[in-house]
C-alpha cells in the first residue's frame, strides 16, 4: 500500500492511511463519488451497477476491514485522531456490509437515492464550462445505457431470489422514468435537454449519446412497468422490524431503541403542537388548528413570485445569514462563505436538497429547490428550510469538513458521512437560528415549527408503519389502531402544511429508504445533548462559537459516538 499524508516512510500504515486508501479504491469503482469529490478522471465514467459491481464494493469493504484490524495493532494507532477515524471506518463499513449481505441492493427501487437517480443527478454537477468538459460529458452519456442495464440485472436477480421492492415506490419510479423520457411533454428526454446546452462543435456526438441514454431510460421504464411491477404485485409496502433495524443502523450509525425513539417522536409532536398553537393565534386569531393558519398564509402570507426570483431570493437569504453569523457565532474561511442557490431539475422527489463542494472548492456547495411546477412560493415554507439546507445547516458542516480535510482522513471529510449526523446538525441549525432571534416574525416562526413538526412526524410514521406499532391512547388520531401506510399518509397530511403531492412524495420516500428520515430528529437530539453536556462541563466559560467550530471540524461520526465527542469539546 502506498504511503499517504498520514504515514511516514518505511512505517506501517495507520488507520487514517487505511481510510484514505479506501477512498482511492472506492473512487476507482464508483466514479460518481469521484465526481462529487472533484476527481476529474471520474467524470467520463459511471459505476458497474450490476450484481458483480455491488459485490466488488463489498469485497473492498471486507479487505479494508482486514487492513484496519492490522493497522489498529500498530504503534501510533491509539492516538485520538487515529482512534476516531478507525471507529468511524469500522462502523460505516460494517453497516454497509450488513445491508449488502442482506441483498438490499437487489431491490433498491423508489423515488430517490436509487442508482438511476444517482446516474441522472451526477450530470448536474459534472463540470461543463469548456468544450473539453462537454467531450467528457458525451463519454459519460455513452455509459448511461450500460449503467441502466446493470441496474436492471440487479433487480432481475432480486426477482429470482424473491426479494421484492415495495409496489408504491415502484409505481412512483415508473412515473419518474416516464417523465425522464419526455414522452408526456411530446419533446426530448431529460438527457437530450441536458445535452442541448453543449457546444455546437460537439453537437452530433452529444445528441447521439443523449438519444441512446433516453432510449435506455425508455427500455428500463418498459421493463419496470411490464415485468417488474406485475411480478411484485401484492408484496409488502413495509419492511418489518428486522430489516428496519439493519437499515436504520446504516443511516444513523447506532443500534437504536426503536420503541424509545417512537415514544420520543410522540413527545416532540405534543410539544411542538402546543408551540404552534401559540404562534398560529398571532397570525389568525381563533384558528381551529395551526394548519388553518398556515393555509391562510398560503393565500395571504408573504410570497415570492417567479422561479428565477425565488432562486435569487434564496441566494440572498444565505448570503445574509453568512454575513450575520460569521465572526459572531462561527469563524468561516473565505471559501466556506461561498454557496450557490439552484433550481432542481424536474423529475425528482419534492424535497429540497444540498450538494457539497468538491474537495478543492472548484465546485461550491449548492442548494437545490424542486419547484414541482409552482411559480409562487410562500416565504414561511422557505426560510427555515434554507437555514437547514444552506447556512448554517448542511453547507457550513460539509464545507467545513472539506476545508479542514488536511486534519482528518479524506474518508472522515467525505464519503464516511453518517446521514443522521448531517441531518441532525441541519435541524439543530434551524433551532439555533430560532434561539439567536432570526425567527421572531410569526410567519417565519410558525413555518419553522411546522418544519420541526414534519421531522417529528417522520419519526412517528416511519417507525410506526414499518414496525406496525400501535397508535398511543393520547393521540388525536386513531388511538389504539395499528399503523399502515395509508393511515400514516392521512396523519401526516393532517399535521403538515405541505401540499398533498409533497406529502405523497414524502411517504414514498419513507417506503423507499426506511430508517433514514428518523435521523433528523434523533440526530438533532444528539447535537443538543452534546452541547448541553459541554456547557455543563465548562460552566460560565462555555464559548458557543468555539464549540460550534470544533464540532464542525471533527468530521463524520455515528450517533453512537457523536454525543460522546461533542460532550468533550
Outline:
InterPro entries: DUF885. The protein is mainly alpha-helical and 569 residues long.
Mean pLDDT: 95
How many E strands?
5
* Beginning-to-end CA distance, first to last residue: 34 Å
Shape assignment: globular
Following the backbone from N to C, one meets helices and strands in this order, namely HHHHHHHHHHHHEHEEEEHHHHHHHHHH
Give the structural class. Answer: mainly alpha
Cα-based radius of gyration, to the nearest Å: 23 Å
Organism: Streptomyces alfalfae
Pfam families: DUF885
InterPro entries: DUF885
Protein name: DUF885 domain-containing protein
Report on the architecture of this protein.
With 569 residues, this protein is mainly alpha-helical. It folds into two domains: 15-241, no CATH class; 247-520, no CATH class. α1 (15-29) runs antiparallel to α3 (51-71), α4 runs antiparallel to α10 and α21 packs parallel to α23. It has helices spanning 15-29, 31-37, 51-71, 80-101, 115-122, 131-160, 167-181, 190-195, 203-232, 240-252, 258-283, 290-300, 307-325, 383-389, 394-403, 410-413, 419-435, 442-467, 485-494, 500-512, 519-538, 544-552, 559-568, and strands spanning 303-305, 339-343, 353-355, 365-369, 376-378. It is globular, with a radius of gyration of 23 Å. The longest helix is centred in the first third of the chain and has 30 residues, at 131-160. InterPro entries: DUF885 (IPR010281).
